[in-house]
Design brief:
Layout (H helix, E strand, L loop, with lengths): L28 H12 L12 E6 L2 E5 L10 E4 L9 E10 L11 H4 L8 E6 L5 E3 L3 E6 L2 E10 L12 E8 L12 E6 L2 E4 L6 E8 L9 E6 L2 E5 L5 E4 L4 E10 L16 E6 L1
Length: 282
């Protein structure tokens, strides 16, 4: 069963009547968003985008915010496979894609500026916030284990930038084995996507930083994502793609963490990506 997603949060925000003799305590934007999302019981997304341009520069690195260069408002990804009967081991998943063409090059300038898959557009499949697998067909095989198998699948441009549309992702927990505590699909959740693996030196001028954000809204006064590149820390106040300039050949450490308005890690199994090693080869 595919989860229902809505990109707008307005439909879930109700205006409460304030009693004269029982004044209510004001809530922060993040608290209100989190409360309404948790009440919905479903996973949702909410984009926030700043204009393209350099947003921070320090220690020889430059962080650039990007707007979406190619737009896919009608892109749709659905999981057709019934997950109730899946077992530990290899399983085949069948998706359906509409409004988007797999195995086709994304036709915009960014495909020439970033590391780009020659195989074209694809599905990023992420299991338990591990490294993604790129799949270029609607049907592919995956490996599941006993316990929770939290699946995020989303449509990706050929240069690995995610399509951030309400119908362009599937988020599901496949539980195998004994009964386990439910995974809260409506809690704030950060899923790491990019960068990953190895890059040639010619590709390293711009390293894409991309992630998927569920049930949370970033803002200058609310939740933020902390990006650490080696020992350099950047703060991201909008959910959009970024790239990093200035990396040299060698091995680099990337890390993403979802923080609340006070700078504390938001509780959740995936909200700290841990260190992801990226290698730039000469």
């Amino acid at each position: 069963m595919r989860f229902i997603r809505k990109i707008s949060l307005l439909g879930f925000i109700t205006i409460g009547l304030i009693s004269c003799d029982q004044p209510s305590e004001a809530k922060s934007e993040s608290e209100e968003v989190e409360e309404k999302l948790s009440n919905s019981g479903e996973a949702m997304i909410s984009k926030s985008i700043a204009p393209s341009g350099v947003i921070d520069e320090k220690e020889g690195l430059k962080l650039v915010a990007l707007e979406e260069e190619s737009d896919f408002p009608n892109a749709s990804l659905e999981l057709n496979t019934r997950t109730e009967g899946l077992k530990s081991g290899k399983n085949t998943l069948q998706f359906s894609v509409e409004g988007y063409e797999l195995a086709k090059q994304t036709e915009d300038q960014r495909s020439t500026l970033l590391a780009n898959s020659k195989k074209g557009q694809h599905v990023h499949f992420i299991l338990n916030n591990g490294p993604y697998e790129a799949h270029y067909d609607e049907e592919f095989e995956i490996q599941l284990d006993e316990g929770h198998n939290v699946i995020l699948a989303f449509l990706s441009r050929s240069y690995h930038e995610s399509v951030k549309e309400e119908t362009a992702f599937v988020f599901k927990d496949v539980v195998i084995g004994e009964e386990l505590e439910d995974f809260d699909k409506s809690a704030p959740c950060l899923i790491y996507s990019r960068p990953k693996g190895s890059y040639t030196l010619s590709e390293s001028d711009r390293i894409l930083v991309d992630f998927y954000l569920l049930n949370a809204k970033l803002s200058s006064s609310g939740m933020k994502v902390e990006l650490t590149v080696d020992d350099t820390v950047f703060t991201l106040s909008n959910w959009q793609p970024y790239w990093v300039e200035g990396l040299k050949a060698g091995e680099h450490k990337f890390r993403l963490r979802l923080l609340d308005e006070e700078g504390n890690l938001v509780q959740g199994p995936f909200n700290d990506s841990g260190i992801r090693l990226v290698k730039i080869e000469e």
